[in-house]
Amino acid sequence: MTLYLIIDVERSLKLALSSSSKKHNVKPVKRIEDLVRIALPDNFFEKRQRANAPKEKREEATVRHKALREMEALAESHLKDLFDEES
């Protein structure tokens, strides 16, 4: 039931665990959570979180990552120039 709620109905892990625990009277909930985490791929929740992120946040992150890559390239070329001058 928990997997159905998480995958098909797209409920959160916490809500799915709570609902299935109450319906089937299974305690502790941690036992169900461990089984769900075994059944689902490691990056399942990360992918869903990224997909559900607001569009503005995704665009901001893209701009930040692009600027960071450019700064890293500049820093790398700067260090290369410094070490080439010393030789």
Beta-strand content bin: under 5%
Order of helices and strands: HHHHH
Given the C-alpha coordinates, what overall shape results?
A: elongated
Helix content: over 70%
The N- and C-terminal alpha carbons lie at a distance of 67 Å
> What is the number of helices?
5
The overall strand count is: 0
Taking pLDDT < 50 over at least 5 consecutive residues as the criterion, the unreliable ranges are none
Task: Calculate the mean pLDDT score and round it.
Answer: 83
Could you walk me through the main structural features you see in this protein, from its secondary elements to its overall organization?
The chain is mostly helical and 87 residues long. The chain has two domains: 1-52; 54-87. 79% of the residues lie in helices and 0% in strands. It is built from five helices and no strands. It has helices spanning 2-7, 13-24, 29-39, 44-51, 55-86. The longest helix has 32 residues, at 55-86. The radius of gyration is 23 Å and the shape is elongated. The termini are far apart. The mean pLDDT is 83.
